[in-house]
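Field log, afternoon session.

UNIT: design team B
ACTIVITY: writing a sequence onto a fixed backbone
BACKBONE:
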């Protein structure tokens, strides 16, 4: 077969192009530190890397959910603890005002104190985390409790729903981090003018207690103490339940962090280049490229004169 100059020059050009491409890829590997960047680098490895990236993205989302959930639970625990303190203080005030040593003036003044406690509890019941209400169920953009002080009779209406707000912390695993406000502060479906109604409603207890103190009604003060005992038990149960959920999030977070380390390590092993080997490969390709250029220059400089 006769080798023409064109065939010779085309072969030289292909060789230089191939060597140049290999050198470029070796240089890219050193500069990026990545062994796989394109499908052609390692098709099977790239599929595995993409799966790991998806898993890591999912873990990252779960971590954000846990962080958000912990913020809600921490705020909820703090809020409920403050409500517990106010109920405890109110009960102590009831014990004091039920004493025969207290008169109508002291009880009327105590009524003003209870009104202040009522408004503090109302403010706590409308607590927000990052602009969202924690006691509105899933209606987190709605103020849960509204106080109609003018009446008649005075009342506090619940505007949330009965489904607690939750966050996802795993496949088909959700944790309730908000609350249906009525489970904490009592439902409002009763006659607010009836002193015997609303036994579980904290706001009703405060409103009736205030009325009893202003009216110097000792029996009404005693009735309020019984309600406060039950309501304190309920709030303390809620505080304990919140603490249990925080521990659950902590345990899940540890699992997620372990998975993150495992997946990151596997992804790095597949995707990242061995820098020392990559540098040696680059040097090898550079040498090959220089050799190709040198030999090509010799071939390209040949002419008819060289054969005369």
């Amino acid at each position: 077969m006769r080798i023409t100059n064109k065939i010779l020059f085309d072969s030289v050009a292909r060789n230089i192009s191939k060597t140049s491409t290999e050198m470029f890829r070796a240089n890219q590997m050193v500069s990026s530190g990545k062994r796989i960047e394109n499908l052609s680098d390692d098709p099977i490895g790239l599929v595995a890397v993409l799966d790991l990236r998806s898993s890591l993205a999912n873990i990252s989302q779960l971590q954000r959910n846990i962080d958000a959930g912990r913020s809600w639970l921490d705020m909820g625990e703090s809020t409920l603890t403050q409500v517990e303190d106010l109920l405890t203080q109110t009960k102590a005030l009831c014990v004091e005002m039920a004493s025969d040593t207290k008169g109508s003036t002291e009880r009327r003044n105590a009524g003003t104190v209870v009104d202040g406690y009522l408004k503090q509890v109302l403010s706590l019941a409308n607590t927000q985390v990052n602009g969202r209400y924690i006691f509105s169920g899933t209606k987190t953009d709605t103020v849960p409790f509204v106080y109609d002080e003018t009446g008649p009779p005075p009342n506090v209406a619940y505007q949330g729903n009965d489904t607690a707000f939750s966050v996802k912390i795993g496949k088909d695993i959700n944790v309730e981090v908000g609350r249906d406000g009525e489970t904490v502060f009592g439902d409002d479906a009763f006659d607010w003018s009836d002193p015997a109604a609303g036994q579980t409603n904290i706001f009703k207890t405060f409103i009736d207690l205030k009325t009893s103190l202003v009216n110097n009604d000792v029996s009404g003060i005693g009735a309020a103490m019984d309600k406060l005992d039950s309501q304190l038990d309920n709030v303390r149960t809620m505080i304990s339940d919140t603490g249990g959920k925080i521990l659950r999030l902590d345990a899940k977070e540890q699992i997620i962090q372990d998975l993150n380390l495992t997946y990151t390590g596997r992804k790095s092993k597949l995707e990242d280049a061995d820098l020392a080997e990559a540098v040696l490969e680059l040097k090898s390709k550079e040498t090959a490229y220089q050799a190709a250029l040198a030999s090509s220059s010799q071939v390209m400089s040949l002419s008819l004169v060289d054969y005369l």
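LOG NOTE: The radius of gyration is 38 Å.
NEXT ACTIVITY: expression trials, pending approval
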